[in-house]
């Protein structure tokens, strides 16, 4: 890992930024998966990830088709993300908007509409890569969110677990704002992961 800071506190979003990884996480409500101050410069990706996980017993991390996935075993939200999402095309739009549209058509319309109506939308969405998303039959909600994060390349999606399903979704990105007109990335989502 390259980072100028000899020591710093670290949260999952910061870890994903300095590791240059798209990430997804299922967390307890309001949790940011943060670790206290410790060495950063010269550390390996594994050492920093171990530090984050050590601060949050019960969480595990795995690479899933190019996306770092962090979550507790089990839980209602993790199970809800494994249900199928409709096979549909979401024409070119910023990755955060595409992810919210997947959520809207997959059982979270109120949460998605709240995100789509955010007042910071234009400014915030300029940080996301434009994606053209094709979701195929058999893909799960998690497959779609992971594929969108991978297509964006610098996106972190976070689902908060509720009692019966996911209670909130957050997105972040560490890309500098992009021009209004730019290239897009095609994202094809198929059911694939166990």
Shape field:
globular
Q: What would you call the structural class?
A: alpha/beta
Strand share of the residues? 25-35%
Strands of the largest sheet, in order across it? 4-5-2-8-9
Number of helices: 7
**Low-pLDDT segments:** none
Q: Distance between the terminal alpha carbons, to the nearest Å? A: 30 Å
How large is the radius of gyration?
A: 16 Å
Biggest sheet statistics:
5 strands, mixed
Order of helices and strands, N to C? EHEEHEEHEHHHEHEEE
Give the number of DSSP strands.
10
Helix content: 25-40%
Mean pLDDT: 88
Quick rundown:
Helices cover 31% and strands 32% of the residues. The protein is α/β, with parallel strands linked by helices. Helix 4 (95-105) packs antiparallel against helix 7.
Walkthrough of the structure:
The protein is of the alpha/beta class and 194 residues long. Helix 4 (95-105) runs antiparallel to helix 5 and helix 4 (95-105) packs antiparallel against helix 7 (141-152). The strands form 3 sheets. Strands 4-5-2-8-9 form a 5-stranded mixed beta sheet, with helices on both faces. A 3-stranded mixed beta sheet has the order 6-7-10. The mean pLDDT is 88. Strand 8 and strand 9 form a beta hairpin. The longest helix has 12 residues, at 141-152. The chain is 31% helix and 32% strand. It starts with 6 loop residues before the first strand and ends in a 5-residue tail after the last strand.
Topology (SSEs and partners):
Blueprint: E1 7-11, H1 12-19, E2 23-27, E3 34-39, H2 45-54, E4 59-64, E5 67-72, H3 76-81, E6 88-94, H4 95-105, H5 109-116, H6 121-125, E7 130-135, H7 141-152, E8 155-161, E9 166-173, E10 184-189
Parallel strand pairs: 2-5, 2-8, 7-10
Antiparallel strand pairs: 1-3, 4-5, 6-7, 8-9
Helix pairs in contact: 4-5, 4-7
């Amino acid at each position: 890992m390259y980072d100028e800071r000899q020591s710093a506190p670290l949260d999952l979003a910061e870890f994903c930024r300095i590791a240059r990884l798209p990430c997804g996480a299922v967390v307890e409500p309001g949790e940011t998966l943060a670790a206290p101050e410790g060495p950063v410069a010269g550390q390996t990706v594994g050492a920093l990830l171990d530090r984050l996980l050590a601060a949050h017993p019960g969480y595990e991390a795995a690479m899933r088709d190019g996306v770092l996935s962090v979550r507790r075993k089990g839980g209602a939200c993790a199970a809800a993300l494994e249900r199928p999402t409709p096979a549909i095309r979401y024409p070119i739009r910023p990755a955060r908007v595409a992810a919210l549209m997947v959520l809207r058509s997959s059982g979270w319309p109120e949460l998605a509409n709240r995100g789509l109506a955010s007042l910071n939308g234009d400014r915030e969405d300029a940080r996301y890569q434009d994606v053209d998303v094709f979701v195929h039959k058999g893909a799960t909600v998690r497959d779609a969110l992971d594929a969108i994060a991978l297509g964006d390349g610098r996106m972190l999606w976070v689902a908060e677990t509720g009692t019966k399903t996911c209670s909130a979704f957050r997105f972040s990105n560490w890309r500098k704002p992009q021009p209004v007109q730019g290239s897009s990335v095609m994202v094809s989502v198929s059911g694939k992961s166990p």
